[in-house]
Specification:
The protein is mainly beta and 556 residues long. Helices cover 0% and strands 52% of the residues. The chain has no helices and 50 strands. Strands 1-2-3-4 form a four-stranded antiparallel β-sheet, with no helix packed on it. A four-stranded antiparallel β-sheet has the order 8-9-10-11, with no helix packed on it. A four-stranded antiparallel β-sheet has the order 12-13-14-15, with no helix packed on it. Strand 36 and strand 37 form a beta hairpin.
Length: 556
């Protein structure tokens, strides 16, 4: 649940075990009903910080596409694509039945309930029909056959006088809220593609539609005429999937790429755009100003400033899993590699024209001294300086991770060993080998002074080495039960943080290895990224595509 005014005031609910499909906040504002792809509905408190569960129900087996609360916040209608039925009505506190949803022959896409008595409800489905219900208890009243293709959305006005429907035939209709009779057909050609969503202003005088033609349109409910039109973009990812209103004057429309476009109908402008990762976060880096950069599974990279503002890195970027990001203090630029086998450079919020192909799939990237960038691939280590490859080291092992400090480069291998190299300005020369880990090396991190090296492996073990003496300091940093995906040293060099596939985060003490602090269940699906963003503040992210910050007490 995102706060549209303050990006730091968000709620992340992680109790679902299957992909979530819909969430609706009750009219009372106290509860949220959320559902998933197998038919589970969870009703939970959104006032308290603990999000206490009120009810868990499974109205039918199958994907739930939409939910709707009644005006009293007592009854919920859930619809979708179930095996035995396509919809159900139940009480929010007991789960007992409060009617029957029938009349459709294909998956139901949307449902809306009239907020006032006498209660009415409407459902829209892939059979191109809208079914109208009387309640409560809810029962079939009639079938409305206005659309000729899939009906994507149906929404009641807050006043209850009208409801609107939108469909794949690019048509929009208005109906009487009490009788279900057709009030208006807004005509052909109002959109050039599927209309995915429609929603009403709080005064019920206007409604907005979001379409696959990348536009959002505002209509006057009284005159049934178009008032405004906004074109969001030109790319497929700019298709508009749905919208909601914030107050009387702002419309929030959702793009296919996950962007939320805030439109001010008074000025007629897109006031701002809210960004964020839409796929699992895979890697990160932080620059000297404290701005963090997070790369995700779909190739997207976003910047997150210290005040929580998120901006995408735009331009010709990656198309696949981002496997590494590195910051270079010498050039003040950032560098990234991804599973599309490319190396790219960016500064601020824009990719540069620099793009180099790697000889094999890149597993990580690290910045050395004098602006040289090292890329670990499945076949070796490549050195890049001033947008050119200046060295290539073929190795007998399979690299799996990399880190650098000054002229020292550490490369972790699938063979469980860590290989140390020295960079002389033109080539890498091996200077040592560390082999106390027992599984493939999954991540590496140097201490700020370069004297220590932390190494995490796929077995959940974490070793701390002395780089100068090339010996193990401690193997007692134990606690993880899954692959360690991320490591970062505290700026002071006396503590380190780790995140793993087991969803946990640990903060370790260098001076007293047995002392540690833990953050259990930090990220559903596994932690892929950890960074220090303050003396006692950690940022983390992972498979659930959410970036979180934590205030921690350092183990002494």
């Amino acid at each position: 649940i995102r706060d549209l005014q303050d990006p730091s005031k968000n709620i992340v609910y992680t109790a679902h075990t299957q992909p979530t499909t819909v969430a609706r906040i009750s009219p009372s504002g106290y509860y949220c009903a959320s559902a998933d792809s197998v038919g589970n509905v969870r009703i939970w408190d959104i006032v308290g910080e603990e999000n206490i569960l009120k009810l868990e129900a499974k109205p039918f087996a199958g994907k739930i596409a939409d939910l709707s609360w009644d005006g009293e916040s007592k009854r919920i209608i859930a619809v979708g694509d179930g095996r035995e039925k396509l919809g159900a009505v139940f009480m929010f506190d007991t789960g007992s039945s409060a009617g029957e949803i029938s009349g459709h022959s294909k998956a139901i896409n949307a449902v809306s309930i009239r907020s006032q008595r006498p209660f009415r409800a409407a459902t829209a489905a892939d059979d191109s029909h809208i079914v109208f219900y009387h309640g409560a208890p809810y029962k079939y009243e009639k079938t409305i056959r206005t659309h000729t293709k899939f009906v994507q959305d149906v929404r009641y006005a807050p006043s209850g006088d009208l409801f609107v429907s939108a469909g794949s035939d690019a048509k929009v209709f208005l109906y009487d809220g009490k009788t279900g009779e057709v009030v208006a057909d807004l005509g052909d050609g109002i959109h050039k593609g599927t209309v995915f969503g429609a929603n009403w202003s709080s005064d019920s005088k206007h409604f907005a539609t979001s379409s696959a033609d990348k536009t959002v349109k505002l209509f006057d409910a009284t005159t049934q005429k178009e008032v405004s039109c906004w074109t969001i973009g030109s790319d497929i990812a700019d298709q508009q999937c749905g919208n909601t209103w914030m107050g009387e004057h702002e419309i929030a429309s959702l793009s296919l790429n996950g962007n939320i476009n805030m439109i001010d109908k008074r000025s007629g402008e897109i006031a701002r755009v809210l960004y964020g990762p839409t796929k699992g976060v895979t890697t990160s880096a932080i620059d000297s100003s404290g701005t963090m950069y997070a790369g995700s599974f779909d190739g997207r990279i976003v910047s997150v400033t210290t005040n929580g503002t998120v901006e995408p890195i735009v331009g010709s970027g990656h198309t696949n899993h981002v496997s590494g990001i590195a910051t270079c203090p010498t050039t003040s630029k950032l560098y990234s590699v991804a599973y599309d086998d490319t190396f790219r450079e960016f500064a601020g919020t824009k990719f540069s024209a620099t793009s180099l192909s790697t000889t094999a799939q890149p597993k990580g990237v690290a910045a050395g001294e004098d602006g040289v960038i090292f890329v670990a691939t499945l076949s070796g280590v490549e050195a890049i300086l001033e947008d050119k490859k200046v060295s290539k080291l073929q190795v007998s092992y399979v690299p799996s991770s990399i880190s650098a400090n000054g002229s020292t480069v550490a490369v972790g291998g699938e063979d469980t060993a860590i290989y140390l190299y020295s960079w002389d300005g033109s080539k890498l020369t091996q200077t040592g080998k560390l082999d106390s880990n027992n599984s493939a090396i999954s991540c590496l991190a140097f201490s700020p002074d370069g004297g220590l090296l932390a190494a995490g492996d796929s077995g959940g073990k974490l070793m701390l080495y002395n780089v100068i003496k090339k010996e193990l300091i401690t193997g007692r940093w134990s606690g993880h039960s899954g692959r360690i995906n991320a490591l970062a040293f505290h700026p002071g060099g006396k503590h380190a943080v780790s995140g793993a596939l087991d969803t946990n985060i640990f903060i370790w003490s260098v001076e007293k290895p047995l002392r540690k602090a833990s953050i259990p269940n930090a990220c559903m699906g596994g932690v892929n990224m950890v960074q220090w963003i303050g003396e006692n503040t950690i940022a983390s992210a992972g498979a659930d595509a959410s970036i979180r910050t934590w205030e921690v007490v350092l183990p002494s």
